[in-house]
Amino acid sequence: MAMKSIAKVVASPQPHWVGDGFLVHPLFADHAFQNDVSPFLMLDYAAPRAFKPSAKPPGVGVHPHKGFETVTIVYNGEVEHRDSAGNSGVIGPGDVQWMTAGRGILHEEFHSREAAKRGGVVSMAQLWVNLPRRDKGAAPGYQDIRDSAIPRIKFDGGELRVIAGAHGDVKGPAHTFTRMNVWDIRLDAGGRVTLPLHDGDPAILPVFSGRVAVNGERLVESSHVALFERAGGAIALEAKEASQLLLLSGEPIDEPIAAYGPFVMNTQVEIRQAMEEFRAGKMGVL
Known about the structure:
Blueprint: E1 6-11, E2 16-18, E3 22-26, E4 40-51, E5 59-65, E6 68-76, E7 79-83, E8 88-91, E9 96-100, E10 105-111, H1 113-118, E11 120-130, E12 141-145, E13 152-155, E14 158-164, E15 166-167, E16 170-171, E17 180-187, E18 192-196, E19 203-209, E20 211-214, E21 218-221, E22 224-228, E23 234-239, E24 243-250, E25 258-260, E26 263-265, H2 268-279
Antiparallel strand pairs: 1-22, 2-3, 3-4, 4-11, 5-10, 6-9, 6-11, 7-8, 7-10, 9-12, 13-14, 14-17, 15-16, 17-24, 18-23, 19-22, 19-24, 20-21, 20-23, 25-26
């Protein structure tokens, strides 16, 4: 089986605050919203950070989205969500929230009220997943995926959680509009695994912490992302130290991308329309 070779390793820019609750590393850097990371758009990672107890939960207030999906994975702490489609909930370590903005939604994200009162360490990742033109008008949706519902594949020196897609006969619980894999991987120091992927699909390897050798050749360090060539059907990983990472791959959406703030459409005309819809209150209320 031919291995997918690394096309580029990207270093994360300096982190920035999203609201007052999440200091995030924009891991895709200037490749965000480009077709070489399709069907994904961007990835923010909030490394473990201690917060003092607070009566006012830190986070991000009400804001709109349209034309894509957000996937939030919690590693430490708790994140509380509420949106204009009537969904709400709290996710904790290992849980995943998969929100479809579709034709338009308002939402807010904060540290949970109880977690904020206690204070403590918070760490999470948020991935934006593009929708093809045919699905950008889909009804808003919300998938509350608990850690216990995510299948695990254990191997010598680590484990892989199948959030979306499939690894062999093991299928993830997330519903997706296009074919993709979202695999959450933990490797112990010295852990090794070879992962099969579709030949012809883009693949992306964000390393949140640790150091990982890819295909026995290139070392990818913490806060770096490896972008792979589409050709090839597997990737081999070996952790040089305990590591936490994602492996993202999927059928590319080879369509124009027009992005402005919280809206991702195909044309600038559609972006202007989304802004007008938001200002007119057509994305609901919270």
